[in-house]
Amino acid sequence: MNVTLGIDVACRAAHQASLARDGRVVWRGRKFTTSTTELEALWADLDVAQPAELTVVLEPTRNAWIVLAQWFRRRGARVVMVPTTQSADLRKYYSKHAKNDRLDSEILAKLPLLHPEGLRAFTGPGTADPLRRLTKQRSTMVKRRTAVFSRLDALIELLGPGWYAVLGSDYGKAALAFLARYGDPNAVLRLGHSRLSRFLQARSRGQYGDAPAAGLIAAARESLALWGADGMDWAELAADIAVEAEQAMYLNTQIHDIDERIANLYADADPSGIVASAPGVGPVISAVIAGRIGDPHRFTSLAAIRAYSGLVPKVNQSGVGETKPGITKAGDPLLREMLFIAADHARQVDPQLAAKYVRLMSGDRHRDSAICHLAADLLTRIAACMRSGTPYVLRDNDGREITTDEGRQIVRSQYRVDPKRRDTAAHRRMRERRANEGGPGSQKSPSAPTSRPATTIIETHASA
């Protein structure tokens, strides 16, 4: 007898559960919370002879489902997960105009009989879970820092181009320390060249000194000359710049600490460095791939790993016609982003990837589309290495094992894409896409003037 417990997980409200035996619902809509008392009461109501006969079906709702999955797994039940999109589509089949927690739990209880191949077994939190969380946290921190840098750029533009020419756009420690204290041109002039030079040397460990100090003093004088005596409230502008600079310094510290933790976790998750052996994969990207994929054996095939990344194309087939309108983007977005970056670097080292890139770019394909193809291939190779426990090996198109330097030389000599041809194809594809999507330039006004002279003759009559 197949006993299935479907649980619609809630983050703040009570969960709802439905029990089915051989696909027939026994009871539905049982409410409970994540507490040992109510979980024990629910377990008593299940009335199963052997815990292994019970299958618990969950949707991965934020992190609230993990506690329930681990509790039932410790009791001996089989815990499986189902993607939220699949359960939502099945619910619409049963009830198109109604959606509630009781109905969701009932659908989950029937899923093992309706769509068993869509279930994924929960094997417990693995060693890659902390790495998975931390890589996502680092990505969020980097995006926040990028936003802070953009706001700093906008504020420094008010000071004039001289400041940007000296400080640059990367905003190192010395630049941020300077902006946190001396965003006012008057304060820079009062500080003077000697003290400003010593300040920059101390914050940059001797890398910057006299030349940047002289440039900043000149930029401060230029700012005052551009705005005049009463053109800008420099104190308020300096306060705004200081806020952004201090946020950037704090984020830099946080990212540095996260990088150290990621390095330690990656060493535990991939002690042989199999992921890092792939071309185009550095310390950050290797940690993301190892953390987001986790145990590669939890996937049924390499195709399932590609589908998880969202780099596989959509398919629209009917009769003899078939189209592939872009990739699904249905998987892990951070994994997809890092694979795209890695593939763009790997094609400059791996001759096999470079040959495919040239073949794809020989037509009118957009560069991003070609890189997505390479990213899917690179993921397949890395996953195969992870499953077999062997490092990535560079080979030329004849199958001969080569070094990184040899691969880079082969790519430079044999697989080069004309930049002009690449840009022309990209612009043409962009124009076609905008025309198909109804973007700018896709519609012509019927009343627009033509290049030919008008043929309409307007007759005027003198008034009486």
From TrEMBL:
Which Pfam families does the entry mention? Answer: DEDD_Tnp_IS110, Transposase_20
Q: Which GO terms describe its molecular function?
A: DNA binding; transposase activity
Record field: compositional bias (Basic and acidic residues)? 415-426
Please cite one Gene Ontology biological process associated with this protein: DNA transposition
Ranges where the Transposase IS116/IS110/IS902 C-terminal domain occurs: 274-357
Renumbered residue ranges of the record's region Disordered: 415-464
Q: Where is the composition biased (Polar residues)?
A: 442-464
Q: Which InterPro entries match?
A: Transp_IS110-like_N, Transpos_IS110, Transposase_20
Q: What is this protein called?
A: IS110 family transposase
